[in-house]
Amino acid sequence: MNNKFRVFLKGIFDVSPLMIPVVPFGLIFGVLSIDIGFSPIETMGMSLIVFGGASQIVLLQLFSGGASSLVIISSVGAVNSRHLLYGAVVSEHLSDLKLVWKIVISYFLVDQAFARSNEYFKKNKDNDKYFHLFGGGITCWVIWQTTTFLGIVLGSFIPEKLGLSFAVPLTFLALLVNDFRKLINVIVIIISGLVATFGFNYVPYKAYVIVAGVTALLTAAILTKLNIKNE
Amino acid sequence: MSNWLLIIYCGLITFLTRFSMIALLKKEMFNDRIREILSFVPSAIFPAIIFPAIFLDNSGDFQLENNPKIMAAIIAMLIGIISQNIIATIISGLASYWFLIFMV
What we know:
The complex is a heterodimer. Chain A is an all-alpha fold. Chain A is built from twelve helices and no strands. By secondary structure, chain B is an all-alpha fold. Chain B is built from five helices and no strands. In chain B, helix 4 packs antiparallel against helix 5 (about 85-105). Chain B is extended, with a radius of gyration of 19 Å. The interface between A and B is large, with 91 and 69 residues.
């Protein structure tokens, strides 16, 4: 078998278990987007163009709250800033790639694919290793587009009184489960939540996500500076 | 701004963050301190979505009494802490929410 194809299949295989939580996330996104008033084409377009769960849900949440476009775009940027963290790790493995491949890989670079391929990169040094990330990324892509589509279809059947919009805070809550056990993270979570809730009506342009995020990140900077043990 | 333009800009900024990490960022650009702080980004940003969606109603007013979302979120959080499982967290939260609004 061609080595590139072998590494590609390995990427698909490695990322597959991480796809289980993506299924409800994609369905919820599709259902909510229709609920909020985006057309099926626009909803599908979001998953194809943005291709990022957290980004898309933040877009929906702020859009439905009447935030301005500038605030929505910068909040999506703030949510994505967590990706910058990975840069230091992954760029050294992909620095020899052609620009076209860097662009292709960038589109498919989602959290799950990154997590698995980063482990693979550390153990494998062959030149085709980027096909691992490509395989993992395409797997995420297929699952995300399919579940978005199913969500759009389901969205026209699901009654509004089920209150599925509550799935948004639940989904983000679920993404933080590993942080609830760490003291500094818990303090940061509470600060961010309080600033956002009390600032919701007072921060101009619905920029409360950014204001809360920056405040909480400054808190994290101060607390880690104090050398508090984060366990 | 039209919906499509908004979607394209959001896609662009998402793509650029990912692209910058592959094409522009080098290991030396981040010292341990910056990396440590960036690791708090999810904890700093996600609650700004979570809290208002639970404690405020559609018009942005506090809704602290007769609010099944608070109890459901607490149950989901406890299940999340115990199970460390994303799906269990979401399902337990939705199930207890539906139980509270339809059964109680």
